[in-house]
Protein 1
Amino acid sequence: MKLSARNRINARVVGVTRGEATANVEMDAGGTRLVASITVEAADELALFEGQEVIAVVKASDVILAVADDPAGG
Amino acid sequence: MKLSARNRINARVVGVTRGEATANVEMDAGGTRLVASITVEAADELALFEGQEVIAVVKASDVILAVADDPAGG
Amino acid sequence: MKLSARNRINARVVGVTRGEATANVEMDAGGTRLVASITVEAADELALFEGQEVIAVVKASDVILAVADDPAGG
Amino acid sequence: MKLSARNRINARVVGVTRGEATANVEMDAGGTRLVASITVEAADELALFEGQEVIAVVKASDVILAVADDPAGG
Amino acid sequence: MKLSARNRINARVVGVTRGEATANVEMDAGGTRLVASITVEAADELALFEGQEVIAVVKASDVILAVADDPAGG
Amino acid sequence: MKLSARNRINARVVGVTRGEATANVEMDAGGTRLVASITVEAADELALFEGQEVIAVVKASDVILAVADDPAGG
């Protein structure tokens, strides 16, 4: 299956915090911490476990850019 | 400034494709390709240039998880 | 009221899973299952009930396209 | 590949409007019109053509519910 | 029509920047500048004009909070 | 830090509803009620309190426009 979403980040599941409706999935992507909020139903269906290899998929229109106020120190 | 957004990925600008309203910013995050679609106005205001250090910021609710159909090969 | 959002899908409420902050609303749209995660406050305000006719509204920029790897079987 | 996204709507491509950065993909899903705004790069990669079968994927947190002001006519 | 979306901000259209696929709508909401990126099709359908009264609608899950690093100056 | 996100609305925290995974933050922006759904982790990290000054940040692509069916009364 090909996806139009431009961002696919390989990561491993570190932990899952479950509420009644939403689950927050904490991941590690080569030292960068990632978090995904998904439905509890999706977390169950994906059978997430610690150490599992997953792909964090993000649409380009959902990425905000931040830059330091003065990166050059000028 | 602190942000509620849980995902902040350090990256470098690789290139910018500008339309009239939208600019797609291609980035490299330690070997992972990222793309952000932002307004042309924002691209101008951030004065993006090739090689610039930026942070790709994504809200946890905008992250989709994908897993291989059978990661264990079973 | 006219909305800029391009996707409006007629559906019926099948069930609601409520947490403290978020409610997941399961719907049926002519045989296609849909799920919306909204605030519990919104679920209360809309007075959702099973069988209720609703419209699932989605912005065009929130739609990801997926295609089979080889739809032509070639 | 399994996705956490809860909404997957089968559709056929009706047309594509291309800008420099963004492409709007118009689809038909059993009589319901759908539109996805994706990057031009993604449109090229998916090799979209009229009549192509695609899946419109939407995260549950990106679905807004609308209900008529007085569905019971009371 | 009632919407589940929790944020509805009254605003006036200040200007529209049109590309081929996307239009950026600049608004004024009581002194706060707002910008919406919508499809050109939606901009045409809404027949947007300068000074027009509109409502900027945003889902609660699309709002990021930012706070100053040290608001108390301590 | 500069952000690409085009909408930054000054507001004050009115209240926080916490679930296990998600917190809904109610705000007042000069008389307009705003709500943000963020992770409980983010709510803790921002140390939100009633009356706190915050900025509600929204990407332009997450803003939907609504207009009255007949604003001119014609």
Protein 2
Amino acid sequence: MDYTPALMTDMYEYTMLDATLRDGAANRKCVFEVFTRRLPEGRRYGVVAGTGRILDMLEDFHLSDEDLRFLADRHIVSRETVKWLENFRFTGTIRGYREGEMFFPNSPILQVEGTFGECTLLETLILSVLNYDSAVASAASRMVTAAKDRPCMDMGGRRTNEAAAVAAARASAVGGFQGTANLMAARRYGLKAIGTAAHCFTLVHDSERDAFASQIASLGRNTTLLVDTYNIEEAVRTAVEVAGPELGGVRIDSGDLAALAQRVRNQLDALGATETTITVTNDLDEYAIAALQTAPVDSYGVGTMLVTGSGAPTCAMVYKLTERENSDGVMQPVAKKSKDKATVPGRKLAYRSYEYNLADCEHVVSGSEEKLAAFRPQDGWKDLLVDYVRDGEIDHTYQGHDAIMAAHEHRAKALAELPITAQSLMKGEPVIPTETTVL
Amino acid sequence: MDYTPALMTDMYEYTMLDATLRDGAANRKCVFEVFTRRLPEGRRYGVVAGTGRILDMLEDFHLSDEDLRFLADRHIVSRETVKWLENFRFTGTIRGYREGEMFFPNSPILQVEGTFGECTLLETLILSVLNYDSAVASAASRMVTAAKDRPCMDMGGRRTNEAAAVAAARASAVGGFQGTANLMAARRYGLKAIGTAAHCFTLVHDSERDAFASQIASLGRNTTLLVDTYNIEEAVRTAVEVAGPELGGVRIDSGDLAALAQRVRNQLDALGATETTITVTNDLDEYAIAALQTAPVDSYGVGTMLVTGSGAPTCAMVYKLTERENSDGVMQPVAKKSKDKATVPGRKLAYRSYEYNLADCEHVVSGSEEKLAAFRPQDGWKDLLVDYVRDGEIDHTYQGHDAIMAAHEHRAKALAELPITAQSLMKGEPVIPTETTVL
């Protein structure tokens, strides 16, 4: 399969490029900002994810001959624009929130600075990545909170687009998950891969005992056996008979999980398999996980609700021009005035302030470039923007496995610094307010 | 970017392969079936989409040396299994519902027949594709119904994963949409691409008039101008001044669309631009579209709610082993008995019956292979299963642009053959029942 990031893009980015190359506006310096006007209903915070993937794709943001021919043949752009695109390389600057950082309405999650032409081409891809990945990471974070110290694992690949599944696995790691069933994600991002067997494995064998024996012969006694294909009590008995009390774990994928987990725990303990763990995996979301707090469960496998953002399958992030050069070459804040979609003009700075070591406010500061340059945050305000790309040079520390692990750690730390309400599953307002100041 | 379909897969498919290659069960002939136990709440029908993409990826379902090294290094499979995988090629048979076909609970949407080993490896990918693509096509179909004769266009790419966006554009075409903003989908599937300019295009110019003039210079008078960046009334006046009454169209992306469309229509007519069309694009779903029925709107651009399945971002399709060879080489229906997830054993036939030219029942028939071979449907029952792959040979008529257009036509026809209730947006039961008969 051939995926060209540069064409994973709405047509109007190219028609705007074409028109502005013609009239010169393509060369105007611009600042675009990604933000959301609201969190999903009742959510207290969001978790940024996907920025590292944007950097990966920025490196591949070139058009092949076939792509260029397509743009020309369909008359999407002129011959001159095709020429311009042949050597396209983003030469601007990108800064933004770290992956794993909490975000709120109007947080300037990403800022893209460059010419109008180059910034415009990136819009669709940036939004696709941030909107989906952050939706998954935000849901993951709530699930991980509900699970307390018990690990959550991504098993959702089959319930989302096959490539989205790879991104979801990565985003779930940012959001606090500890492993994924998805092999592509495990390979590409160095994530821990998990999984043993499905019901069909039991069914293809002549008996459950044959299936368990086969799995143990292949994966060892430390494996996790799926015990709900026929009768759970019988399956647990068979499992311990075949594997011995050193059986690694059992998995339950149906029924009343709290009741079943308790019964299976009792049975395992009575059989001497006191160290055998119990994994549950039946249509879990953060609420179901919270309801299992007192059940003897050791880990959670989450599918559908993880990869679909637990009711919020996309964030409402937008990519808006907030500042641009005018015809005299002076940078000028701009904003549209559309009813219900108005924007705050000007590039933003972003800080978080703390009281008693807990966050109490997100500060978004905008103004002319001179005023921003002169602005000094108050003591203790944390600067939320990091530099991802400077004049076209990508900072590679934000890509790859280590960056994901850093984001995973950062999420836990940043969440712990929010008021405790952030960890509530009750619907409510964003846990801290965002104060926007125009200098 | 490198996407290996064979690794866009849950790890347990490989560990099951490994264990069954060791004990011989990998070679047992099997039938797996894809179906859903329920439609999303209140939906009257679903629309199948994605099968052509499965065929595309089946052609690429090979493991690279790097993939094989990964499986070996992580000890996911044994050395013998790596050898087996080196030459992997699916040699089985796949049949199922056509793309664009209506489906209901328990419809056998896809049947995969082959050895346990080869069928197992396909599970995750098949479900990812069908679950997402069908969710989008099902939502699209409701929107198209609500829009009646007005065209619906996909503009949702930025609100879903960047590769999912390409699949969503394709699925929306199956579901009845007439064009997409997504260039990758337009290139790969030969779809009509649409789009002209965003708010940033107006903002980057010194005035709205400059922006409109630039767009017309580049795209001609027949282009669609976005008129809600500042003041809509002024923008429409400027638009007609700059383009003349032969202006192609205007787009409104915010505010109360019904009221605005009426005012803009009046203004355009008064300015003599009676042929200028009005496109609206502000967070539409099927209900919003239905509410605009009497507004003078010419086409709809749909984003978020299309690519997230309008409240149902995934189908609940599963892939279940329903029949397999036993140790004597005889095919045997099998089924798990898990509480709340039990399945009907045996391969299925599927028919739709009609009364007065309208569908009245979905008939799902299962039983031993001999009984199925002897089964004769009643007069007028339509056989719903087509052959996609026979003994590893893909029927290419189900791939590519023509297949999508055929599916687009088929959806319209199949929907028209359902009781009219199918076109209602009111919540309710599936519009026809599914009768399962075990012979």
